[in-house]
Amino acid sequence: MKLTVLKSTIAGVALAAAASAAWADKANDTLRVAFTKELENVDSYFNSSREGVVLQRAVWDGLIYRDPVTNEYKGNLATEWEWIDDTTIEFKLREGVTFHDGSDFTADDVVFTVNYVADEANGVKTQRNVNWMKSAEKIDDYTVRIMLKDKFPAAIEFLSGPVSMYPSDYYAEAGPEGMGLKPVGTGPYKVVSVVPGQHFVLEKNEAYHDSPKGQPTVTNVDIRTIPDVNTQMAELFSGTLDLIWQVPADQAEKLAETGQFTVSNESTMRVGYLGMDASGRSGDTPFKDIRVRKAVNHAINRGELVEALLKGQSQVISTPCFPSQFGCDVDAAVSYDYDPEKAKELLAEAGYPDGFTTDFYAYRDREYAEAISSYLNAVGIDTNFKMLQYSALRELNMKGETPISFQTWGSYSVNDASAMVSQFFKHGSLDDARDDETLEYLNIADSATDPEVRKENYSKAIKRITEQAFWAPMFSYNTNYVTTKEVEYTPTADEVLRFTTVTWN
């Protein structure tokens, strides 16, 4: 099947506006940014979107910071740390740090935050980010210990990413709903205005501590949710936006051709994949049959998708994790070449010589999902394509009601295979395989302190997952950033838009 690429065109009115556009709100020192996806809750523990990660890194801080270029761990809210034993880490905290509401950051805030998010009853959205922690205890005002439920060598990596510290008194009263409406952190930017899901205004934290994140340069950041990329581009031309990101390759190329914008492309850890209901959570689905799952894997021309649609630094992926993540053994994975005839043979062997019809879900990248749907249709898997909001699709996933879906996962930019493989294959609410052998390997890999033992068992899990074709890994993503010429921004490979590194030209 030849993939047809539909190239979007830039509206003439936008081109006409370009000549007179005010290229940036430099005069007001306000960076105007578009988010494509609606953020369900600003509280970083109660959303799981990339937009949420961006705000989390701007508004809150963690105990540790991982440099996105060197991958070196540096102290942030903690100045030093040491392992007391295999399940206890002691932290010395940075003194003189204040939250945006003026309250002091102390050990009480760490103890409250850890104990709150570690309690499954409080419903943190992505349990994988926090469920390895047991509790925290205060030694003195600026010394705290975090206790783990079991050995978890990736603890430092998680503490440098999705685990942020919250003000104990404020959060105890406000909770997730209040934090979503009036966020309070220690980060480089404070939130001064929120229209839930639609509009967020940030202001430079003049009292920001000596953090490895760096001091913010731009005074204000004005973020609006604009789902349609063409509308974003029109606003970029008219001068009402300064930065857009996650721009599809074709549109990014066209914007670059105008010579009026700076277009940057950077790789990411985000992996696109097809999840299939191998265990029958959604009913007596054909995807319980390994031959059907293998047929799906053979039906799709991943290389053509990357070349025609994603472009940039994207690559074909054969693993249920990103290759740079610790333990993501590419050589252990069973890969499936594009072979539509083989796919048809496997479907016939499974009892579907004439194919079958199934609901097929996605929440983003309609063009990619529709192309994948076309490949499936071509071998006899007729798809009833359903495009949903992310939160709606995630709810269906957690209930086990999606026979097959196209989704993505960016691992919260955590550079460890556990952030992806263990998120989806340890019998949690998002695990449609429910495979005991895979679970056994991952339990060992997640808790072993010997790196070689971890690697060995992640390799076994990856081999098992791909042999059984529980997923159909597709490709890695890259991100296109487009800014006006007045804006200077260098993206990093972890898919985190960092406002602290934005400057004016």
From TrEMBL:
Its main location: periplasm. GO terms for biological process: peptide transport. Residues 72-427 form the Solute-binding protein family domain. GO terms for molecular function: peptide transmembrane transporter activity. Coiled coil: none annotated. Pfam families: SBP_bac_5. The keyword tRNA processing does not apply. Residues 1-24 form the signal peptide. It comes from the Bacteria. Keywords: Signal, Transport. It is found in: Periplasm. GO terms for cellular component: ATP-binding cassette (ABC) transporter complex; outer membrane-bounded periplasmic space. Belongs to the bacterial solute-binding protein 5 family. This is ABC transporter substrate-binding protein. It comes from Aquicoccus porphyridii.
